[in-house]
Amino acid sequence: MLSPLPAIFIFSLISSMADAGEASESSIYDVLKLNGLPMGLLPKGVTNFSLDDSGKFEVRLDRACNAKFENELHYDMNVTGTLSYGQIDGLVGISAQDLFLWFPVIEIRVDIPSSGLIYFDVGVVSKQYSLSSFESPRDCLAAPGPDLREGKRIVESVSKVMSRKLRFELDKDNLGRTSL
């Protein structure tokens, strides 16, 4: 007569493998939550992710897609950045649409969780959204990548103007000091 022990072992092995598969699918969302960020920053459809000790991460989605929040967000198949408590820096792979233009999001941060606000930095400006909009991962519809050329041109133009304005203010301040 066969012992029930091998059958129990095989069943528990299969169960633990199934649990591990579920944990790896949702664990990026847990990592976001543990770092003071809402789980819904990334859409449903994450197939894999990696995170190193310095906070650098890479998330792979099953396809490039768009998700609708207050505005529409586009996610490339690969999203990378550096995660620290309450923010993601050096972000690549997420774009936000505003006034029919797409802008690459380079930073996401939650300064004060009790404020209920989350900030998306697109280079020259930060756009604030309701934190509650990102509480849970959204469905993401397959979409081609956005045309970022016009948004990038606007960001570059505004950056140049702001740089000139700052340089003018510094020159004006230095001129005032030298004449004293």
- Secondary-structure content class: alpha+beta
Q: For the residues shown, what is the average pLDDT?
A: 78
What's the Cα radius of gyration? 22 Å
Helical region count? 2
Order of helices and strands: HEEEEEEEEEEH
Sequence stretches where pLDDT stays below 50 over 5 or more residues: 1-26
Portion in helices? 25-40%
Summarize the biggest pleated sheet: 10 strands, antiparallel
Work out the number of β strands: 10
List keywords for this structure.
33% helix, disordered N terminus, 2 helices, 10 strands, alpha+beta, ten-stranded antiparallel beta sheet, 180 residues
Summarize the structure.
The chain has helices at residues 5-34, 149-178, and strands at residues 46-51, 56-61, 65-68, 72-84, 87-98, 101-104, 107-109, 117-121, 126-130, 141-142. Strands 1, 2, 3, 4, 5, 6, 7, 8, 9 and 10 form a ten-stranded antiparallel sheet that branches.
